[in-house]
Amino acid sequence: TKLKTEDVPRGAMNLNVESGSGSTFATATLTRSRYFELISDSRVNGDTQRTTISTKGKGFVWHALGHNEFNVRLSREIPTNLRLDTGATDIDADLSQVRLSSLDIDTGASSIDAKLGDKENNLAVNIDAGASSITLRVPVSTGVRVEHDGGATYKDFDGINKVSDDIYESPNFSSATKKITIKSDTGASSFTIERY
Fold it and tell me: Which residue in 31, 49, 147, 167 is a FRET match for 58, CA 20 to 30 A apart?
């Protein structure tokens, strides 16, 4: 699944992602906005379904600041690779119940708060962000490895220790059945990892 926002000025879009029951792979709504339209495309190739859900600005949208909600619900039953491709967007994602194998975030100056789960044995997270505030919440039972390449970044990794230049690992990473590997390339950002 790919979620994409286009023509979005700074602070103009809130992207909310959560999970739900049922066989529908992904559903989306766009609320509180007359200035963006929702575009969806879904194709099946073999046993893989590729779904792209995007927003596109309709004309001049600066007066739409702070009044746009892009809400997405993903199935809890279907294995998922998720890509978020956004401009200046506030992202709030509860993915703790999604069978998530990979999460790719490519964003500009954004605020990101994402709760990850342990429904798959291996979860690969890739973050390419500009000047952003990033918070990832990960289960305490998972082993976590972080490969961080960033500019002037404030880092606070709960229970994850530095093992070499730009490499961090939780003490249980090697032995854990469930693993989360995070690769990040950020600008001047605040990057926090919390355990729950």
Answer: 49
Instruction: Render pLDDT for 33-63 as a digit per residue (tens, 0 to 9).
Output: 556 666 777 777 777 777 787 766 655 444 4
The pTM assigned to this predicted structure is 0.84
C-alpha to C-alpha distance for 131 and 108, rounded to whole angstroms:
7
What does the block give as tokens for 160? 């994850």
pLDDT tens digits, 81-120:
999 888 778 899 999 999 999 999 998 877 899 999 999 9
Determine the Cα–Cα distance for residues 116 and 6; give it in Å rounded to an integer.
25
Q: Give the span between the Cα atoms of 141 and 47, in whole angstroms.
A: 31
